[in-house]
TrEMBL record:
Keywords: Membrane, Transmembrane, Transmembrane helix. It comes from the Bacteria. The keyword Transcription regulation does not apply. The chain crosses the membrane at residues 6-39, 51-72, 84-117, 129-156. InterPro entries: DUF456. This is DUF456 domain-containing protein.
Length: 169
């Protein structure tokens, strides 16, 4: 195994673990590991540039989707703009409480915003909070799938026997 392979493997494992922490840029950790590994492995513009550009676009997409997942969930389950903003503010404030706060913050934020600002009944506010949780979990699920695919593909590219079969550098 090459140094590039090992560096990416460590970054990938760290990114997969960090996937469960909403405020940690797990996708960016995996992308940085891939970029460093490709550079250490002997960057070849023809093969590696499209790979890194594609990986970079997927990274931006995943990070963007992740940032709005809880707000989307609140909206999908009947919450208004108050619930969406409450989920975002709750998520930011939840960061101060550690990993558990990252999950609880958006739920409490959406629930409180629906009750206090939208003046919705308890049941409707609860539905919006539930939607926030669904959004968070959907975001985590999507990230896990994408991180897994990106990781396996990158490890295959860096694995020496695969390079001989695939003709990579």
């Amino acid at each position: 195994m090459s140094l590039a392979f090992i560096i990416f493997l460590v970054a990938w494992i760290a990114g997969m673990v960090c996937t469960f922490l909403p405020a940690v840029p797990a996708t960016l950790i995996i992308f940085a590991g891939a970029a460093i590994a490709v550079l250490l492995d002997g960057f070849q513009a023809g093969a590696d540039l499209p790979f890194l550009l594609g990986f970079g676009l997927v990274t931006l997409l995943v990070m963007s989707v992740d940032n709005v997942a809880s707000a989307w969930g609140a909206k999908k389950y009947g919450g208004g703009k108050e619930a969406m903003w409450g989920a975002i503010v709750g998520g930011l404030l939840g960061m101060l409480l550690g990993p558990l706060g990252l999950f609880v913050g958006p739920l409490v934020g959406a629930f409180a915003a629906e009750l206090l600002f939208a003046r919705k009944p308890l049941e409707d506010a609860g539905r919006s909070a539930w939607g926030t949780l669904v959004g968070i979990l959907a975001g985590i699920g999507a990230k896990l799938v994408l991180h897994f695919v990106m990781g396996i593909y990158t490890l295959w590219r860096l694995w020496e026997p695969a390079q001989r079969v695939g003709g990579g550098g």
